[in-house]
Amino acid sequence: MITYFEIQTTGEIHENRSEKAANWIHFEDPSKHEMQHFARKYHLPRMLFEVAQDINEVARYETFTTETGEILSHICLLVPVKTHDSEKHAEYITRPFSFIISGQTLLTVGHQQSELVAEMQRITGTDQQVESIVLQSISLIYQRYLTALDVVAQQIHQLEKNVHISTRNQILYALKALKKSVVYLDLGLKSDQQSLPQIKEAALFEEVADQKDRLYRIDLQFAKSDKAITTYRALLEQLSDLLSDIISNRLNNIMKTLTSISIVLTVPTIIGGFWGMNVPVPLTHSGKGFILLLGLSGIVSALVGWWLKKKDYF
Fold first, then answer.
1. Separation between Cα atoms, residue 24 and residue 43, nearest integer Å
2. How far apart are CA 171 and CA 246, in angstroms?
């Protein structure tokens, strides 16, 4: 799908139906025909459109010289995307998002990035430079990491509350989703950060107003995200250990209870075994022998059960 936007002189960004008036074109999961058409039109390598569809892509900054001698800048960053697993637990993965700057025309390519594009569209008060919009969009991407980590923090808090009452499978599925989210967010953030020094040194952003302040904000967002990931990774490891301890404790309690029940049931067997020998025993000729032995077995079993209960074996 292709969406056209016009960056107006007022600093606002509006969606436009006409390609002629657009100076920002967004490609959401473009088709092969769309990629070929716009690659030819803007003299771009087709691989720039394919980057955003590769889940194994890494963040990077690079420049290209077209056949007409024009220098293009390409920035690819990994963006958090919220999904759900088979058990309906929310989890995060990362998807590449490309900025292609050609003069004062901006091309963006992404997959499952409609929320980010909507946030970019709300950027206002810019100096009408494409470079300025790209720099603020990079800050939005880092902010999305912070937002995703806030969701992870809430999920960890909820998991801590439910760890004693939820079923084992529910906890394991939730823990798996959280660990997967943290891994993706950690690797995506580090990949983005590796390309940031090149972005800072690029001549592309030298004319952007408040460039240093915006880059400082991006560095600050990274520092917050990195600290949060380190903290949540440690918390998840502790939760995982706690869950293992709880499962082991429950298993021990079950085995203890079953052992106590076996001991109680063994008492009638022992008493019955003595009176089942093929030798003369008391009450052999008594009509009430069976009832007396049954009562004796019940009393002894009750006493053994009481003693085991007192020792906290039940």
1. 16
2. 11
Q: What is the pLDDT of residues 197-231, one digit of tens each?
A: 888 887 777 777 677 888 888 889 889 998 999 99
What distance in Å separates the CA atoms of residue 111 and residue 97, rounded to the nearest whole number?
A: 7
The pLDDT score that the predictor gives to residue 127 is 60
Collect all residues with Cβ–Cβ distance below 8 Å to 126 and sequence separation of at least 6. Answer: 7, 11, 132, 133, 136
- Determine contact, residues 59/191, Cβ cutoff 8 Å: yes
Listing DSSP states for 12-57 in one string gives -EEEES-SSS-SEEEEES--HHHHHHHHHHTT--THHHHGGG-TT-
The residues, ordered by sequence, that sit 6+ positions from 149 with a Cβ below 8 Å of its Cβ are 185, 225, 228, 229, 232
- Rounded CA separation 89/156 (Å): 12
Q: Is 287 helix (H, G, I), strand (E, B) or coil?
A: coil
d(Cα 243, Cα 253) in Å, to the nearest integer? 15
Structure tokens at 172: 């394991």
Residue range 278-306, pLDDT digits in tens? 667 776 667 777 787 788 888 888 888 88
User: Rounded CA gap, 292 and 13, in Å?
Assistant: 95
DSSP element (H, E) containing 146: helix 130-162
**What DSSP element (H or E) covers 83?**
strand 71-84
